[in-house]
């Protein structure tokens, strides 16, 4: 019995050696991104503790003194700050609107492009649609200013020449929100469409042929074949989008904002910039960033659990 056990262990070790001898190059290639993530993603996470300590530029994160109230001093300051509460509200509002209007847009565009019979027109449309992705928000804000400014914007000049009142796209808070959302959809819709077009290539064309034989219309094919074929991709991307619901990019709101719309344009990234970099309150800014990360993980985990509960493939 003992000899048989030793032989089994020896056989397992032999199989392991042969496996590593055969696939060691794949693991060596995997080592490069693993080292990258450890150095640039996980090692900097040690500075998360700055959110619970009094920041000092001359000390390491481990040597800094703990903040008051058991390290929660800066979290209490953040939630007592009216600008922070407004920033949370604005971040949630803008991201929710972007999700409602921006998430379905690439799905619809991918379906329309997939249904186009003219391949050349399809390629041109797709290229034109994803070109804005390569423009920085500084360039897009300049274009928006030239087109939508109240006094000298091209759109309002045309409206005045038609005898209509100009629209304050960038100067009125309510109009600024919708302009912000529209520009975000315009900038990202084409690039995100590529993902759904790639998913559409995985749908068996015989399903469409069978549906045509059964007399199904084009809308029926989309509803019963195309959308179910995209469902897993839609669920995964929706989960990732929900994980970023409390996050906020800096360049987009900062480039589009002005003093007339700060009540809706000041998001968490701008709050961190104003208080952390300009105001040199690094501990407060780190606390806000830590809060964003925790809320984002909560949304991500719950969205994944809901997807798994409905028998959909989640992230894990």
The number of helices is: 14
Say which CATH homologous superfamily of the largest domain is assigned.
MetI-like
Quaternary status of these chains? single chain
CATH top level of the largest domain? Mainly Alpha
Distance linking N and C termini: 41 Å
Query: Which percent range fits the helix content?
Result: over 70%
User: In percent, how much strand structure appears in the residues?
Assistant: under 5%
Number of strands: 0
Gross CATH architecture of the largest domain: Orthogonal Bundle
| Main structural class | mainly alpha
Integer-rounded radius of gyration: 26 Å
What's the mean pLDDT score?
89
Q: Any descriptors?
A:
MetI-like fold; mainly alpha; 71% helix; 316 residues
Summarize the entry for a quick read:
With 316 residues, the chain is mainly alpha-helical. Helix content is 71%, strand content 0%.
Describe the model.
Helices cover 71% and strands 0% of the residues. The chain is an all-alpha fold. The protein folds into two domains: 50 residues, no CATH class; 257 residues, MetI-like (MetI-like fold, Orthogonal Bundle), CATH 1.10.3720. The mean pLDDT is 89.
Fold topology:
Layout: H1 2-42, H2 73-79, H3 82-102, H4 104-115, H5 119-130, H6 137-148, H7 154-161, H8 173-200, H9 205-213, H10 218-243, H11 251-256, H12 262-265, H13 268-278, H14 282-309
Helix pairs in contact: 2-14, 3-8, 3-13, 4-8, 5-8, 8-10, 10-14, 13-14
